[in-house]
Design brief:
Layout (H helix, E strand, L loop, with lengths): L1 E4 L4 H12 L4 E5 L7 H6 L1 E4 L5 H7 L5 E4 L10 H16 L5 E7 L10 H13 L4 E7 L1 E2 L7 H7 L1 E4 L7 E4 L1 H12 L7 E5 L5 E2 L1 H12 L4 E4 L2 H10 L4 H15 L18 H16 L1
Parallel strand pairs: 1-2, 1-4, 2-3, 4-5, 5-6, 6-10, 7-9, 8-12
Antiparallel strand pairs: 9-11
Helix pairs in contact: 1-7, 4-5, 6-11, 8-11, 9-10
């Protein structure tokens, strides 16, 4: 039995579909089962609730062989510890002392991340899960290509996307499809043991200026990149309801990435995944922009 948390998100949805296509027994934890596709509701066992709830995870993980762990965003949390570690502790109580395989979504940066906001918190979460004695693999990623989907309205309306990023800094980007594929391979494989990290770096490093060029070419219209200041990004996040602590954590993470955090992970053949940014634009971004228009 493979338990999938966050099955309606971009990673979890693609992962659940892959596992069911492989005829694996799947159980999902979901707050709102109506958000699941009809096929998932028909083929998977559904546990309703939050995977931060002790009663829910106690039920969902009871006879599981493997668990996919993805932390849900909590932009209003009072602290990173509350958002990452406190949420994860109930699951860890169930994990403790059991021969489970757990695959988690985390971030690159171990050994180099200092005050890196969400990245530092993700690595602390990995350590907490590993301390339970389960077999654990952390999928470690740079920035997701799919994060750009939050800016589809601006891209469709004004031909602009904005990040707190140095425009000409070359960095890796990865697609959620490749993350889901990496997770599926690990969850379907019972041969691994111990603790470790599996980087998912995408196939290439790009600057945001190059990202804008590719987007312009695929969309057939000019798209430009706008660099946000830390002050502008924090003001925007606070206006959207983020707490001071979580907004500052985002600033700290962006600052660390601008200083080369994502580049610290060596690009090996094993860490290089297939989906190019151009392919992602063609398959994901272009339909999203067309729908927004």
């Amino acid at each position: 039995m493979i338990v999938v948390t966050a099955p309606t998100g971009r990673i979890g949805r693609q992962l659940t579909e892959s596992l069911l296509a492989a005829d694996a027994p799947v159980r999902v934890i979901v707050r709102d089962p109506s958000r699941l596709t009809a096929a998932v509701r028909e083929k998977a066992e559904v546990v309703t609730g939050s995977h931060g709830d002790p009663e829910v995870v106690g039920k969902a993980f009871a006879d599981a062989d493997a668990v996919f762990w993805l932390l849900p965003p909590n932009h209003s949390a009072d602290s990173l510890d509350a958002a990452f570690l406190d949420f994860t502790r109930p699951a860890c109580e169930v994990f403790r002392g059991r021969d489970l395989r757990v695959v988690g979504v985390s971030a690159v940066g171990r050994g180099v991340a200092v005050n890196a906001g969400h990245v530092s918190a993700s690595l602390a979460m990995d350590d907490l899960i590993a301390s339970t004695g389960v077999r654990y693999r952390a999928l470690t990623m740079p920035t997701f290509m799919d994060n750009l989907l939050w800016q589809v309205p601006s891209i469709a309306r004004d031909g602009v996307f904005a990040e707190m990023a140095v425009p000409d800094h070359r960095r890796p980007l990865c697609a959620t499809k490749d993350i889901a594929d990496a997770a599926a391979r690990l969850l379907l494989d019972d041969s691994w043991s111990g603790h470790g990290e599996v980087p998912v770096l995408g196939p290439e490093d790009l600057t945001y200026l190059e990202v804008a060029e590719i987007m312009s070419d695929v969309l057939g219209r000019p798209v430009r990149f706008e660099q946000l200041s830390a002050e502008a990004l924090k003001a925007s996040l606070r206006q959207r309801g983020w707490s001071e602590a979580m907004a500052q954590a985002m600033i700290d993470m962006a600052t660390a990435k601008n200083a080369g955090l994502d580049n610290a992970e060596p690009r090996t053949p094993e860490a290089t995944t297939p989906t190019t940014f151009r392919q992602w634009c063609e398959e994901v971004l272009r339909p999203a922009v067309a729908s927004a228009g």
